[in-house]
Q: What sequence folds into this?
């Protein structure tokens, strides 16, 4: 693979710094994680956006969260068609092999994926409608959310960011192994949305059917 190049110097330096400090100070913990395997209590599904950092928000240690990131923190519906479904594979592993107790979908403010979905669904982004657009076809998952908020909000982008969390929670329940554990009381689903600039965290309240500050 002639395209693989040496790591840039700034990353080499940072790695060496981590190894000499964080790793060295916690070597026993890392060895235990390696020997005993991971036992994360929660899976987090968040956006690829570099500003969304679930481990930082919750002060999580190595080994605490099983994290899957994709464009706009979306969970597709359960479609067992033999195709390659990365998000579905991560959920299956977390629920059936790791037996996580919590499944958290974390949305966020100024999400580029959600803005693209809004543009596509409102006819402003024909390039995303192309069959060959991976982003467009991925964002199709959120179309039912757009149909629900269209023309009903002063801030449709914000409403659609919240829908990205809700559609994902709904789709999670279409996975038989998720529904089974939820109904057995072994797994709980959580919907969160964070405002990057304000540092706030909202939680979906199923009783009030609204996002409320934590
Ligand atoms: Zn995003």
A:
């Amino acid at each position: 693979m002639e395209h693989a190049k040496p790591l840039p110097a700034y990353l080499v330096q940072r790695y060496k710094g981590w190894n000499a400090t964080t790793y060295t100070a916690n070597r026993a913990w890392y060895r235990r994680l390696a020997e005993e395997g991971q036992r994360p209590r929660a899976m987090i599904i968040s956006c690829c956006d570099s500003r969304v950092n679930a481990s930082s928000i919750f002060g999580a240690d190595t080994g605490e969260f099983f994290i899957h990131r994709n464009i706009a923190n979306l969970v597709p519906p359960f479609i067992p068609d033999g195709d390659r479904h990365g998000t579905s594979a991560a959920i299956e592993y977390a629920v059936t092999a790791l037996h996580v107790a919590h499944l958290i979908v974390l949305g966020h403010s100024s999400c580029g994926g959600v803005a693209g979905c809004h543009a596509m669904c409102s006819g402003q982004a024909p390039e995303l409608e192309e069959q060959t657009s991976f982003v467009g076809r991925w964002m199709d998952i959120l179309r039912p959310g757009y149909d629900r908020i269209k023309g009903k909000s002063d801030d449709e982008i914000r409403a659609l960011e919240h829908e990205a969390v809700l559609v994902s929670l709904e789709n999670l329940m279409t996975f038989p192994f998720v529904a089974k554990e939820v109904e057995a009381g072994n797994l709980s689903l959580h919907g969160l949305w964070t405002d990057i600039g304000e540092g706030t965290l909202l939680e979906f309240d199923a009783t009030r059917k609204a996002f409320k500050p934590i």
Summary: The pocket of zinc ion is lined by residues 47, 49, 72, 108, 111-113 (CB under 6 Å). The beta strands are 42-47, 65-70, 102-108, 188-195, 200-205, 210-213. The two ends are 48 Å apart (CA to CA).
